[in-house]
Amino acid sequence: MKRWFKFSWISLYSQFPKLLTSLDIFLYTLITGSVIGIAFYSAAFVISNLIAHSSLISQALFPKLLAKGSHEHINENFSLLMYFAIPLLGLSVIFSKPALFALNPAYIDGTLIVILLSFKTFFLVLDQTLQRILVSIDTVDVEVNPKFRSLLKSNLFHMSTVRFIKVGIYLFTFVTTLVLLHTAELDEVFLVTIWALITLIIEIPFFIYMWILTKRYIKFSFPYVSTLKYLGTTLAFGIVFVFASEQIIIYHESIFNFLPTVILMFVICVGIYLLITYLIDNKTKKLFKSIINEIS
After folding, report:
1. Are residues 239 and 107 part of one domain?
2. Res. 159: pLDDT tops 80
3. Are 214 and 130 within 8 A, CB to CB?
4. What span, in angstroms and rounded, lies between the C-alpha atoms of 25 and 45?
5. Domain-terminating residue out of 202, 222, 242
6. Which of 47, 83, 231, 294 is the most exposed place for a label (fewest CB within 10 A)?
7. In which band, very low, low, confident or very high, does the pLDDT at 201 lie, cut at 50, 70 and 90?
């Protein structure tokens, strides 16, 4: 118990940035005195957060790294992560308008907000995966009583510090921009769009930093070929959506008339992705065979 309390500050330090991140909603309401923007942001967040589920693919990676598994697991995991993250990004972008309309027709003006938050979530998933990899390969917590100086030099502390810096920059930029724009009495949808743009702009350089840092610690090759295949296939069903959605999706106030058309279009896009990747990618074939064998 003494040891747990002695080193509990590490866990608390790593979780505190999450609490600070949630201050943006409170600060927006405090500065603008309105909750309309929060409604648009929340609706867009629900849709864009679909991409975050792709991070579940990486859960099995970290125990393997903690057990000093081969770094080849990282290559395989990134390939699988891209297989799910890229199409989920594409689906969030192209279905932003139908999804907002399904939540409430009044939210349909927030399509750009969904797109910006979707890209932000995509980079966040990659960023968090890299952070977990760096934490998993750190061995300072293997020691029974690690020195305080060793903990400060470890990735356990470094990753949390980076998150603190990112949250600090984000909140400062967010509050400063919101105060300046709010005095101009701009439309709230425009304010929330700027809010989403800030989150995206801040996320990208921190992802790049994490990528460079990870490459210093671990030699692994990113699956560029597979990623290009998944990206190309995502663009393919995106093009199909652009041409077919106008004939298939009916924007009707009745959910019984609207939702079936959206589901049909969704099934078509997913089906195109699964079929093409199965035909052109050997890793996808192995994945399908593994799923079938597991079920049987």
Report:
1. no
2. yes
3. yes
4. 12
5. 222
6. 294
7. very high
The rounded distance, in Å, linking the Cα atoms of 66 and 251 is 50
DSSP 22: T
The answer to whether residues 92 and 114 touch, using CB atoms and an 8 Å cutoff, is yes
Neighbours of 141 (CB within 10 A): 15
pTM confidence score: 0.90
Enter the DSSP assignment of 143. S
Q: What Cα–Cα distance (Å) separates residue 101 from each residue in 13, 38, 97, 223, 295?
A: 40, 17, 6, 36, 36
Nearest CA to 196 out of 47, 75, 30 is that of: 47
The Cα 171–Cα 198 span in angstroms is 10
> How many folded domains does the chain comprise?
2
CA nearest to 118, candidates 245, 272, 278, 238: 238
Of 151, 138, 153, residue with least CA distance to 65? 138
Range of the domain at 124: 16-222
